Amino acid sequence: MDDQLELSVCQNPGLEPILDLLPLVERFGLKCRLRTMRWENAWNELVRVALDRVGPNVSQIGTTWVGNFAAMDVLRPFTIKEIEALGSPAAFLASSWETVLFVDQPQIWAIPWMADLRVIYYWRDLLEQAGVDEQTAFQSADQIAETFSRLRASGIASPWVTQVSNPVFTLHSLASWVWGAGGDFVTADGRQTLFNRPEARAGFRGYLSLYRYMPPNARALSDPEGIKFFFDRQAAVTLSGSWLPRDLRRYGAPPELLSRLGVARPPGPTFVGGSNLVVWQSTPYPDLALRLIQALLSGPVQAEYGQSVGQLPVRLDALAQPPFSTDPRFQVMVEALKTGRPLPRLPRWGVVEERLVSALTHMVSAVAAEPEGDLDAIIGKYLEPLARRLDIILGI
Fold first, then answer.
1. Fewer CB within 10 Å, N side or C side of the chain?
2. CA-to-CA distance for 101 and 345, rounded, in angstroms?
């Protein structure tokens, strides 16, 4: 019956994995069909799977989607025995395991599969030309602003580029500045907002202030376009995911150029996202579905397939092996994963995130139109009324 198994995975447009996943799974005596979805359409497709109760037995989903599907009562929870068979929580990155835990819900509805994060990438030689010490250049929000100022003074027109056309990406990136300033988005119980408090607003201000170091022609770039802009060395620094080195190689970056690529953690705990694996309640083959998840958590899939899609393992034993334990860039990423954190796992976080993303869209547009404008006024204009409205909703 294992040929009846179906697995759905998500991909980014134009960036298909280098490795075929199915042969890696077949090493474990399993056969399954593979359904690929685009990340931008996956939510709608998976909702249809949930409603029709027909389709994949196991699916890759975004870490922030687990609570929504659990609330729909369409996922099969994992028993303690099954979790132990998959390696127990101690086998996983703590920041990734947090994405399967929810306030007031004892059930485990998903298993971590791949980790994603945000880190700073920079051209080491361009920092050196500007007289910037890469060891201290990004240690705090103030030092980052100083680094960009010195890069511009050295003649670099574009010290900084990062994706601004995707407000969800902006929220994930901004989170490090908010956490680094001692702020947060909501209280631990999810009953009140915190993003309008002084500490969180300092994080918003620190991140949005960097937009003045991004030239107008870089402010509307998609993530692939931003990576190409950085690859062409039109910018000295960018903030991106774990996929950037892979994408630079795909653009044809030679080893000599890649040797100049540096990686640094952002000024606060990095955002840790990625994807989890779920078993649909409707599957007629729950035992085979669990065997498939075991295969997907194996070392070859975690390391080999993970690198081919530009994501990182969630299992500590995989991260303790080369290249993650030996490559200096991966070592920075692994440390960022171990000290990072996900966004809140609360029943109403989806409402908060949706409205924060909308507010960020307006803030970014306002900052792009007037990079030297009054940031506190812009931030207050959107965060203050949003906090009042959400506090009423969350307090009910």
1. C
2. 7
Task: Write the DSSP symbol of residue 165.
Answer: S
User: pTM value?
Assistant: 0.92
| Token reading at 189 | 């119980």
User: Could you give the angle at the alpha carbon of 334 between the alpha carbons of 332 and 340, nearest 5°?
Assistant: 100
Phi/psi of residue 220, nearest 5 degrees: -120, 20
For residue 274, what is the enclosing H or E element?
strand 272-279
Per-residue pLDDT tens over the stretch 312-360 = 999 999 999 999 999 999 999 999 999 999 998 877 888 899 899 999 9
Q: Which two tokens stand for residue 23?
A: 């042969």
Helix locations, 275-374, DSSP H:
286-296, 299-300, 306-308, 316-319, 328-339, 349-369
At position 136, the amino acid (one-letter code) is T
Establish whether the linkage from the previous residue to 323 is cis, with ω within 30° of 0.
yes
Q: What is the C-alpha separation between 180 and 339, in angstroms, rounded?
A: 12
List % helix, strand, coil for the chain (3-state, nearest 5): 50, 15, 35
To the nearest 10°, report the CA torsion of 310, 314, 320, 326. Answer: 20
Domains of the chain in sequence order: 2-117+273-339 (3.40.190.10), 119-270+346-395 (3.40.190.10)
Are the C-beta atoms of 115 and 234 separated by less than 8 Å? no
